[in-house]
TrEMBL record:
<dbReference type="InterPro" id="IPR012341">
    <property type="entry name" value="6hp_glycosidase-like_sf"/>
</dbReference>
<keyword id="KW-0808">Transferase</keyword>
<keyword id="KW-0328">Glycosyltransferase</keyword>
<feature type="domain" description="Glycosyl hydrolase 94 supersandwich">
    <location>
        <begin position="21"/>
        <end position="300"/>
    </location>
</feature>
<dbReference type="InterPro" id="IPR052047">
    <property type="entry name" value="GH94_Enzymes"/>
</dbReference>
<dbReference type="Pfam" id="PF17167">
    <property type="entry name" value="Glyco_hydro_94"/>
</dbReference>
<dbReference type="InterPro" id="IPR011013">
    <property type="entry name" value="Gal_mutarotase_sf_dom"/>
</dbReference>
<dbReference type="Pfam" id="PF06165">
    <property type="entry name" value="GH94_b-supersand"/>
</dbReference>
<dbReference type="InterPro" id="IPR008928">
    <property type="entry name" value="6-hairpin_glycosidase_sf"/>
</dbReference>
<dbReference type="InterPro" id="IPR010383">
    <property type="entry name" value="Glyco_hydrolase_94_b-supersand"/>
</dbReference>
<dbReference type="InterPro" id="IPR033432">
    <property type="entry name" value="GH94_catalytic"/>
</dbReference>
<dbReference type="InterPro" id="IPR037018">
    <property type="entry name" value="GH65_N"/>
</dbReference>
<protein>
    <submittedName>
        <fullName>Glycosyl transferase</fullName>
    </submittedName>
</protein>
<dbReference type="GO" id="GO:0016740">
    <property type="term" value="F:transferase activity"/>
</dbReference>
<feature type="domain" description="Glycosyl hydrolase 94 catalytic">
    <location>
        <begin position="316"/>
        <end position="743"/>
    </location>
</feature>
Length: 820
């Protein structure tokens, strides 16, 4: 079903809501439009032409297949299927062969991608997915002969092995060109590089049919100096049966099919990962133990079995997405909330900022700040995973309450290269934890014993970790009594203590300033907001004395902000290492920043005396554009080492006056707190992909997911997107839309309902699973209001206030909320 949006440009694709798919209609999208496979530990990234790679847990240390970032042509390396019909050949996924297809589409769905192609009356369909609880990519290929005559077709599969450590694979050629080893048995091509020494894992690529040939050496398959677009083996129609020893190992199957008119045949390819115990590594001398691979293959040795697994994956996703669904008069809002935003939330939660088309999978692991924030969009879907993640993050916290900025998923140890001192990091742990408890009612997470700094001897309960996070802020205050910024706060690029003149240095880890002067108003607002959450939590668990003591710190901070951080029409951003104001009308550039407006407003600082109202008006006046709200204005026009990386970007990009979508929801939330439903919605739709279909060409990034950054008004090409998929924008937008626009917000006692919507929305229906009960909620807005009071009834019984008390309910319930 094609979307009926009349403002949709559809140059490259369209939504198919019925199937929860985005349909891409050309292999030549402006950037590779990717999807993610896998929901637990084993993941793949896959573009609309099957480019990308897969890995087990850690895209740096356990990468199975090679991908070339920054390649020419773009998007090189993937799971390729070449179809050869007489002297013609093409790619079943649209590329890398350049032969023009008669028909092509790629359907990115929830955890799978499906490629349809046809040429010369031969139709192919490749369905790629990672089955639940399986460490393998499945590529199911169906070939159909739509001609009137019998066809003899050659199929060649292709993947290239990565030698496991992706960073080393791209650098250490003097060693790597000598180490590759493979084994071949039947139709399975095994990759066992370094297995002879310290590794106890191998990869394999198999197909459920007898082979007519194979290749495992890349140059033999491609032919000298050729690219993936026209491998020599495919051109001549016969595999070389090459056996890789060193150089670049690949896996390619050659299969000859004979298809009668109208006949279809299917081939099930399995690209798997096996880990064996050290005691069971070998079958015999130098022969790997293949039994676990063979066991896995029996699960996927027929088309029926494979489709059955796909069915399970589809049902898994349908069930997950049913936990929260909405029906408003706006289809684009419904599509974002019901399908794509939730899907992106799962992906960002799973992968943090590690592997995407923009993140190489070797640089960044799991970010402390990023992953804590990611939980707020995902906790309603799989709360158990969020619980485990929060505890993992907690275990990388240091004893003084600070945190490693990142950790590697495989080791779960803080990343020493980057270290800590990003002073906003600690308080995000309070956000994720309190939000988790409000969703689940599970206070037991607080009693979990968690190590500090990855060290066994330092173990305290998780509550202690939150307390230390809180204390870290007040133990690190600057000259005005505002929190010290450290290397950076949320804005990684505002580096007020790192003065670098040397292009070979990192902007963030070169610490030259005294670091006890520069202060962050963003962290101050964050401390008031999440500090208050900490106080509420203390009260919930009966730590009244601690709550009272903590409250005093918060009150003091609130006063300090009012005294030292109000600039007249908006909140300052920071004080630099020399005590100078940043984000003040007195500055010539960088007069106003979004982060401090967002956090001080969400914390309600100046709510009663008009400061919040005034700050938001200033955001609207100075930062809002047609494409979203910019991070700062005016942009910095030259590099200033006292500001750091922010001033390194050309104006309009990234943190230098780009539209950094991540923080737009902070303003959306603040607007709803003032009851401004229309303004909140206006900001929401500017960055939400379901509303951007008529901008596919300008945006360039996938029009089904949020991107981190849209170029701001000072850029060469305002409105152009970058860094799609792995961004905190996903969780924050979802949180803003569901908890503040729809206003369905978990609180300790239950579910509170406080909508702030478009006045034209007269009826909203929500299905919400919450703490074991299923609520059908109807929000009626007979007077066309944006916000205000509501009257509530549950199963026909009127209720005082606006909270559904969770302890009273399980099973199915009908809630009617009327805005009055
Ligand atoms: C990082 C975030 C950071 C943001 C703003 C992103 O690339 O992942 O941690 O808050 O940039 O600097």
């Amino acid at each position: 079903m094609q979307s009926s949006d009349d403002d949709t440009d559809q140059t490259y694709g369209y939504f198919d809501d019925q199937n929860y798919e985005y349909v891409i209609t050309t292999p030549y999208t402006p950037t590779p439009w990717i999807n993610y496979l896998g929901s637990n530990e084993f993941y793949g990234i896959i573009s609309n032409t099957a480019g990308g790679y897969c890995f087990d847990r850690d895209p740096k240390f356990r990468r199975l297949t090679r991908y070339r970032y920054n390649s020419v042509p773009l998007d090189s390396g993937g799971r390729y299927f070449y179809i050869r019909d007489e002297n013609d050949f093409w790619s079943a996924t649209g590329r890398p062969a350049t032969t023009q297809l008669d028909q092509y589409s790629c359907r990115h769905g929830m955890g799978y991608s499906r490629f349809n192609a046809s040429k010369n009356g031969i139709a192919t369909q490749v369905t790629s997915f990672i089955p639940l609880d399986t460490k393998a990519e499945i590529h199911s290929l169906v070939v159909t002969n739509h001609t009137q005559s019998t066809k003899s077709i050659d199929v060649f599969s292709f993947i290239e092995w990565c030698l496991w450590n992706a960073e080393d694979d791209g650098a250490n050629f003097q060693r790597n060109l000598s180490t590759a080893e493979v084994e071949i048995e039947g139709s399975t091509l095994y990759h066992k590089t370094e297995y002879r020494e310290r590794r106890n894992h191998y990869g394999f690529y198999s197909v459920n049919r007898q082979l007519d040939g194979y290749d495992t050496n890349r140059e033999s398959f491609l032919g000298p100096y050729r690219g993936f677009d026209r491998p020599e083996v495919v051109e001549k129609g016969q595999a070389n049966n090459s056996f890789a020893r060193g150089w670049s190992p690949i896996a390619s199957h050659h299969l000859k099919l004979e298809l009668a008119p109208g006949e279809s045949q299917s081939l099930e390819f399995v690209l798997g990962y096996i880990e064996v115990s050290v005691d069971h590594k070998w079958h015999s001398k130098n022969v790997i133990n293949k039994q676990p691979a063979k066991d896995m293959l029996t699960r996927f040795d027929s088309h029926e079995k494979v489709m059955d697994e796909l069915g399970k994956l589809n049902r898994y996703w349908r069930t997950l997405l049913c936990k929260f669904s909405v029906e408003t008069p706006d289809d684009k809002f419904n599509r974002a909330i019901n399908i794509w935003n939730q899907y992106q939330n799962m992906v960002t939660f799973n992968l943090s900022r590690s592997a995407s088309f923009y993140e190489s999978g070797i640089g960044r692991g799991i970010g402390f700040r990023d992953s804590n924030q990611d939980t707020i969009g995902f906790v309603h879907m799989v709360p158990e995973k969020v619980r485990a993640r929060i505890l993992d993050l907690s275990s990388t916290q240091k004893f003084d309450g600070s945190a490693y900025h990142q950790y590697q998923p495989l080791t779960k140890k803080g990343n020493a290269n980057i270290g800590g001192n990003f002073n906003d990091d600690p308080m995000w742990l309070v956000l994720s934890t309190t939000n988790y408890i409000k969703e689940t009612g599970d206070f037991s997470i607080l009693q979990e014993m968690v190590i500090y700094d990855g060290q066994e001897q330092a173990t305290h309960d998780h509550f202690d970790h939150l307390l230390r996070a809180f204390m870290h802020v007040i133990n690190n205050l600057g000259p005005h009594g505002l929190p010290l910024i450290g290397r950076a706060d949320w804005n990684d690029c505002l580096n007020l203590n790192c003065f670098s003149d040397d292009p070979n240095e990192s902007f963030q880890t070169t610490q030259v300033g005294a670091s006890d002067v520069a202060e962050s108003v963003m962290i101050a607002g964050q401390f008031v907001l999440y500090g208050q959450e900490f106080v509420d939590l203390c009260q919930q668990v009966g730590k009244i004395e601690l709550a009272n003591r903590s409250m005093k710190h918060i009150e003091k901070m609130r006063k300090t902000i009012e005294q030292h951080a109000w600039d007249g029409e908006w909140y300052l951003r920071a004080y630099d290492s020399r005590g100078k104001k940043i984000g003040s009308h007195k500055n010539s550039e960088g007069k106003i920043f979004i982060e401090s407006q967002g956090f001080c407003a969400m914390a309600g600082i100046g709510l009663n005396d008009g400061k919040v109202e005034q700050a938001l008006r200033s955001v609207d006046k100075h930062l809002a554009t047609d494409f979203g709200i910019m991070l700062n204005q005016p942009a910095y026009s030259q590099y200033d080492k006292y500001l750091g990386e922010i001033s390194s970007y050309p104006p309009g990009y990234k943190e230098n006056a780009g539209i950094f979508c991540h923080n737009n929801p902070w303003i959306i939330i603040a607007e709803t707190m003032l009851g401004h439903g229309e303004k909140a919605f206006e900001y929401y739709r500017k960055i939400t992909p379901t509303y951007l279909q008529n901008r596919q060409t300008l945006l360039k990034t996938e029009p089904y997911v949020y991107c981190q950054m849209i170029a701001g008004k000072d850029a060469a090409n305002p409105g152009e997107g970058k860094n799609s998929w792995l961004t905190g924008t996903a969780a924050w937008s979802y949180y803003a839309a569901t908890q503040y626009i729809l206003g369905i917000r978990p609180v300790y006692q239950g579910l509170s309902i406080a909508p702030c919507v478009l006045p034209s929305w007269k009826l909203i229906r929500v299905q919400r699973e919450f703490r074991g009960a299923q609520y059908s909620i109807e929000i009626h807005n007979p007077h066309g209001l944006s916000s205000g009071k509501i009257t509530l009834s549950i199963d026909g019984q009127p209720v005082e206030g606006n909270v559904i008390s969770s302890s009273s309910f399980n099973g199915q319930h009908t809630v009617i909320a009327t805005m009055v």
